[in-house]
Design brief:
The chain is mainly beta. Helices cover about 5% and strands about 30% of the residues. The strands form 7 sheets. It has a 12-stranded parallel β-sheet with strand order 1-2-5-8-11-14-17-20-23-26-31-34. Strand 37 and strand 38 form a beta hairpin. The longest helix has 15 residues. The two termini are about 15 Å apart.
Length: about 550
């Protein structure tokens, strides 16, 4: 008897064919909001693609989609070119929605489910401010990709708009988008993980490990940001990586704990290998009125900042930026956010503002309150939960670890947050001339160099700061806390250009430990270099059925 054995390639072909037969595609009748909502309403657990056709449509109402339980892969695609930056404006949705609510909201399913939103232009019109995002993606998907879209916020009749916001416990990548902004206080992307671990306000994110170099971040990469006050923001326990972007006359920021009554600040952020261009209108004859104050406004959690390039615009402007980084522990003053004293709020850090400190801070120094809750350079701590009474809660923020949750009279306690310093290395900036600036400005006397933050030094001996070079050139002696970027280590950069590198930290006297390897670039969800646009392995092509 002859036994026929099916080859692996044929098996792959059959699996691919079965998968395609089961897939369901929904085509919206037009790009009008009613037709898009009808298409969203038709989505089932077997739907894999919703196509929104080419055209320009003005919306006066919002649309929403809750991805059905059991749906593991869903792509919402406009007619834009999915291989060109911004998509090319084929499917254009103009926001004339007279509400502050989100224009397009999608609530995702499980952590393993995939969602893609691509090839669509979201353009400002007469719609009211969208502080929660023109597009918002909520839920638990940790495989979310938003790519090849054009967020044209420059055409809004009002400022204060956000192009895209994440919420809940969403991770993934935001790539190859074009963001055009105005010089109001708009921003293209706003990263929240307020629902991390099933808790609210970002509390769960602050109780978990930081996870630098892992997939537990929203990756903002390979985008172009034009003008606007801010490219992005990180808040409510958000974890963000901002890398390999082109920024033209814009800044980025984090929000601190205390900027909203019960919410926490940005949990962690990485910023690296971005090209940042100032405006040629920034010059001494204009009084530097068109110059940018800083590239990175840093106010919360640990951070890694390296190899960003801010080239000279012209000789009278330098790079057009005064500072690369400014550090702000913002509960240490009342210049920006007023604080309510416990038990109704966080209170001010230290007695320096109004003579009264807060039990939420460690208060090793009575005046500064150092270290302050969630300040720059602080990381994982005890789990908190709930809201303050004046924020709609009933328990004045519980410390779950200690069990101190007495309703109405709990004044807080220091949640034992770990020291996780900011590290900066190999950045390039020529600050605005005749206007003193440089790599960093620290706006809080309670923060200390070589304790809360470490800066690059070209003459690194292992005693202080951050050094770089080959691993063999690393000093054998070191002081606990310093770091060294080994340029000949790692293979995370798969782009074919640029370098590699890994960061080693001195964890005890004369003891070096690998601390950080950047996450794979491009992000594994980015399939831009392939004709395959699915989240999983691409089906093989050119197969032949072979029998033996």
């Amino acid at each position: 008897m002859t036994v026929k054995r099916i080859s692996f390639v044929l098996l792959a072909l059959l699996i691919s064919t079965v998968y395609q037969a089961q897939a369901q595609t929904i085509n919206a009748a037009s790009c009008n909001s009613a037709d898009v909502q009808t298409a969203f309403n038709a989505v089932t657990s077997s739907t894999t693609t919703v196509n929104i056709p080419a055209g320009t449509c003005t919306w006066t109402s919002s649309v929403s989609l809750t991805v059905p339980s059991g749906n593991t892969s869903l792509s919402i695609l406009g007619a834009g070119n999915l291989t060109s930056l911004g998509g090319g404006d084929a499917t254009v949705i103009i926001d004339n929605y007279a509400s502050n609510s989100v224009l397009i909201s999608v609530t995702t399913g499980s952590a393993s489910s995939f969602l893609r939103f691509a090839g669509i232009t979201l353009q400002g019109g007469t719609g009211l401010n969208k502080q929660n995002g023109v597009l918002a993606i909520y839920g638990n998907s940790q495989q979310t990709r938003v790519d090849h879209n054009h967020f044209n916020l420059s055409t809004y009749a009002t400022s204060d708009n956000i192009g895209f916001r994440t919420g809940g416990w969403v991770y993934g990548v935001f790539d190859h988008n074009l963001c055009d902004d105005n010089m109001g206080v708009s921003e293209c992307i706003n990263v929240w993980t307020d629902g991390y671990g099933g808790y609210s306000n970002g509390d769960g994110a602050w109780a978990d490990s930081t996870g630098f170099g892992t997939n537990r971040f929203m990756y903002v990469e390979a985008n172009t940001f034009n003008q606007g006050t801010y490219t992005d923001d990180c808040d409510m326990g958000g974890r963000e990586v901002f890398r390999f972007n082109t920024v033209n006359q814009a800044q980025q920021q984090t929000h601190p704990t205390g900027s909203s009554p019960g919410g926490r600040g940005c949990r962690a952020k990485e910023v690296y290998l971005n090209t940042v261009n100032g405006s040629s209108a920034c010059n001494s004859s204009s009084g530097f009125g068109n110059c940018m104050y800083n590239f990175y406004w840093y106010s919360s959690g640990p951070s890694l900042i390296f190899e960003n390039s801010i080239p000279v615009v012209n000789s009278s402007a330098g790079s057009g930026y005064q500072w690369l980084i400014t550090i702000h522990s913002m509960r240490s003053d009342d210049n920006t956010y007023h604080q309510t004293a416990p038990p109704g709020g966080w209170g001010y850090c230290g007695t320096q503002v109004n003579g009264t400190g807060s039990a939420w801070d460690q208060n090793t120094n009575t005046t500064t309150g150092y270290p302050c809750l969630d300040q720059p350079g602080r990381g994982q701590g005890d789990l908190l939960q709930g809201d303050f009474v004046n924020d709609g809660g009933s328990n004045n923020k519980c410390d779950v670890t200690t069990g101190q949750c007495a309703a109405g009279n709990y004044n807080g306690s220091w949640p034992n947050e770990a020291l996780e310093p900011m590290y900066e290395w190999l950045d390039s900036i020529n600050p605005v001339p005749n206007n003193p600036g440089g790599v960093i400005s620290v706006a809080d006397s309670g923060l200390t160099q070589n304790q809360d933050y470490y800066l690059y030094t070209s003459n690194f001996t292992g005693a202080s700061g951050v050094g770089s070079g080959t691993l063999a050139s690393r000093p054998s002696t070191c002081t606990a806390g310093v770091a060294y970027w080994a340029t000949d280590q790692g293979n995370w950069n798969q782009s074919g250009s640029g370098g590699q590198g890994e960061l080693f930290k001195c964890t005890a006297t004369n003891t070096w430990t690998l601390y950080y390897t950047p996450y794979t670039y491009p992000h594994p969800l980015d399939t831009s270099t392939s004709a395959c646009t699915g989240p999983g392995p691409c089906p093989a092509s050119g197969l032949q059925a072979v029998f033996n």
